[in-house]
Amino acid sequence: MITPELLLQELQTAFSKHKYGAEPGELYAPIGYIMSLGGKRFRPLLTLLSASIYTDEWQSALRPAMAVEVFHNFTLMHDDIMDNAPLRRGEPTVHEKWNANTAILSGDVMLIRAYDLLLGIRPELMGKVLARFNQTAAEVCEGQQLDMNFEKRWDVTEAEYLNMIRLKTSVLLGFALELGGLLTGADEASLQLLYAAGENMGMGFQLKDDLLDVFGDPAKFGKQVGGDIISNKKTFLLIEALSRAEGTYRTDLEYWINAADFDKNEKVQAVTKIYEALDIRTFTEQKIREYFEKGLNALEGLPAPDGRKIPLWQFVHQLVERDK
Amino acid sequence: MITPELLLQELQTAFSKHKYGAEPGELYAPIGYIMSLGGKRFRPLLTLLSASIYTDEWQSALRPAMAVEVFHNFTLMHDDIMDNAPLRRGEPTVHEKWNANTAILSGDVMLIRAYDLLLGIRPELMGKVLARFNQTAAEVCEGQQLDMNFEKRWDVTEAEYLNMIRLKTSVLLGFALELGGLLTGADEASLQLLYAAGENMGMGFQLKDDLLDVFGDPAKFGKQVGGDIISNKKTFLLIEALSRAEGTYRTDLEYWINAADFDKNEKVQAVTKIYEALDIRTFTEQKIREYFEKGLNALEGLPAPDGRKIPLWQFVHQLVERDK
C-alpha cells in the first residue's frame, strides 16, 4: 500500500545514497552539504504521488523526481548568495561556510547534475520532459529576478506580487505534479489538471508562508514571528497594506517602514495591528482558501479512480492544513 | 560547396536571430549582451564541420551546435564574476555593467537556455547527447574549480596543470566535434576519434595561448604581451619555470613573483629571459606541436572519405597556424 510516508522514506534513502561527484572536493562538498540540510522534500514527493496515480511502478519516476529537488536546492544555493542570507534551515549558507565563488560554481554543477537525473527517461518522453523542465526552470529564475527588482520598488501591485510568487515558487510545484503524470502516460487534459493543482496549491502555500510569519503560533513556527515585518520584506500582507492604508494607518505604516532604529517587538506589534485594522489577515486567509480550493478542485476533476488518488489526497491535505 | 566561412556565416545569422527570453529585461539583456561581444564561434563551427562529414544536412546540427556556444558563454559570464574580471573582449563584463547578482542569475538562465537548444534532437539520440553534454559541462566546472584552487598554490605540477586545462577548455572542444558525429550517426570508434581530435587540439590551443602571451608578436596579439607575467598567472610556462629554475634563476624568478612594486616592462623582460634560458619556449612549442599532431592524426584516422573531411581540415589548419 503506497502512502506519502513510504514514498518519502524511499526518497530519503535514494538521496542519502546519491553521489553528485567527487573531485575536486571544493566543488562537490557544498552540494552534499545543502542537500543534507534537509527540507521537506515535498516537491519530489508530489512527483511520486502523481506517478502513483497512474502506475504501481512509481520507481520509474524516482530519479526525475530527485531532479526536481536537486534543481530546487540549486536555486536556494544561488538565491542565498543574491539575498546575502547567512542562514539556511538554521545552518550557515554555502557562501558563508565556503565563499561566494564556491557557491556560484557548486550551484552551476548542481544544476547540471539535476539534468543528469533526467537521463534514463524513456526516449519518447525525453523531449517533452526536458522542454517542460527547461521552461519551469527559466520561470523560476524569472521569479527570482522579479523578487529582486521588487526590493527596490514601493509600488508593487497585488497582481505583480502574485505573478512573482507564481514564477518563483508555484510553477515548480505545478511541474512536480505534472512530471509524475508525464512519466506515466497521463493524457494532456490530466497533465493540465495536475499542473493547475500544483500551481494553485503553490500559491496558497506561499501566501500561507507570508501569513504565518505574522500570525503563526510562535510555539510551532520555528522562526521568529514577525521576521518579515522587521526586515520590511515585501510580502502579500505588506503590499496589500500599502495599497489600502490611508490617514493615520498610512502615516504609521510609513513611519515603521522608514524607522532606522526601533524596538523589534514594538514594530512587529504596531504593523500587525495595522494589518488587522485593514482586514489584511482575513483577506489573505480568504485568498489562501481560494487557491487551495482551486488546487483541490483540479485534483478532484482528475479523471482517475478515486482509490488511486488517495495517497496524493492525503498528502495534499497535510499541506493545506499545516500551521507551521 | 560547404566551407568553414559559409558555416560560420550561417551560425552568425542564427545567433543574430535567436531569442533567449524577454521579460524581465534585467534577466535576459545580459545574455544578448555577452553573445553580442562576438568571439570566434569556433566551438559550434567544429560541430557543424564534423556533422558535415556525415551529412549534407548539417542544418540538423545547427541548434545543438549553438547550445555548445551558449554554454561556453554562460561559463564566461560566471567565470568573470569569480575571477573579478573587469573586461571581456574589450568591453565591460556583465557583473561590471550590471552587478554580480544579475550575472549569477542571467548565467543560470543562460545554462537552461543552452539545454533548450538541445530540444528537437531525434528522440533516439537525445539520451546519449544529453549524457555527454552533462558530463562535459560538469568537467568544465571541475576545471574552473581546479584553476581557482591553483591560484593559492605554488607547487602545481605540470600534470596537474595539463589536467586542469583539459577539463576547463579541451573537453568542450572534444565534445563539440563529437556532437557533430553523434547527431549524424557516426559510429562509436569515429566518435572517439572526433573527441580525441578536439581534446588534443584544445590542449595545443590553450598552451599556444600561454605561449603567445609571452612570445606573441605585439603587432598581431591584440593584448599586452606579458600580461600573464605581470599578474603572476600560473601558465604552463610559469609552472615549468618553477619546476626547473635553480640557483640565480630561482632567486630571480621568486624575486619578480614576490615583487609588490615593479616596472611592468622590466618584469616582463626579466621573466621572459628566464623562460628562454630554461628552454621553456622551445619545450612549450614542442608540447604544442605534439598535441596538434595527435589531434591531426585522430582526424586523419577517421574512417570517412577524404573529400568529406576537407572543410574541417581547412578550419583545423587555420586553428593550428594562428599566431594571435
UniProtKB/TrEMBL annotation, chains A, B:
Organism superkingdom: Bacteria
Keywords, ordered alphabetically: Magnesium, Metal-binding, Transferase
A Pfam cross-reference name: polyprenyl_synt
Obligatory cofactor(s): Mg(2+)
Database matches in PROSITE patterns: POLYPRENYL_SYNTHASE_1, POLYPRENYL_SYNTHASE_2
CDD domains for the chain: Trans_IPPS_HT (cd00685)
Family (UniProt): Belongs to the FPP/GGPP synthase family.
PANTHER family recorded: GERANYLGERANYL PYROPHOSPHATE SYNTHASE (PTHR12001), SHORT CHAIN ISOPRENYL DIPHOSPHATE SYNTHASE (PTHR12001:SF85)
Name this protein carries in UniProt: Polyprenyl synthetase family protein
Biological source species: Dyadobacter sandarakinus
